[in-house]
Amino acid sequence: MVTDPIADYLTRVRNAVMANHRVVEVPKSKIKVEMTKILHEKGYITNYKVEDAPIPGMIKIALKYHPVTKISAINSLIRISKPGLRKYVDSDHLPKVLNGLGIAILSTSQGVMTDKEARVKKIGGEVLCFIS
Q1: Which stretches of 3-118 are assigned E, i.e. beta strand?
Q2: Hey, is 37 helix, strand or coil?
Q3: Whole-prediction pTM value?
Q4: Which of 34, 38, 73, 123 sits between 20 and 30 A of 48, alpha carbons compared?
């Protein structure tokens, strides 16, 4: 049993990037699917596929690398809000990752979104992670 599924998701992706794997599989949940959609939309991963066949289900994530230098599009994945210490921000104090070069993923009342989308909608929420 995993006590922090989002940290497990980030760790699996981080380890796969460090090992230069092309595909990583993570157990499926609604929030992980939404986070994966954001990673795909922002260009951090090539593609993803949600499989519902077994009972827990899996998400297959195709990681993105530079074709010549083989450097990953994902440099760092940092978990911010943890089960022991939740980090909430309002719309006036939304974080910027690397002065706008990275993204922060937030869980808001209107769903999971990036810090830029939350800034436009002027809503705050729980800061799940920073990705650059």
Answers
A1: 23-27, 45-51, 58-63, 77-79, 88-89, 103-108, 111-114
A2: helix
A3: 0.93
A4: 123
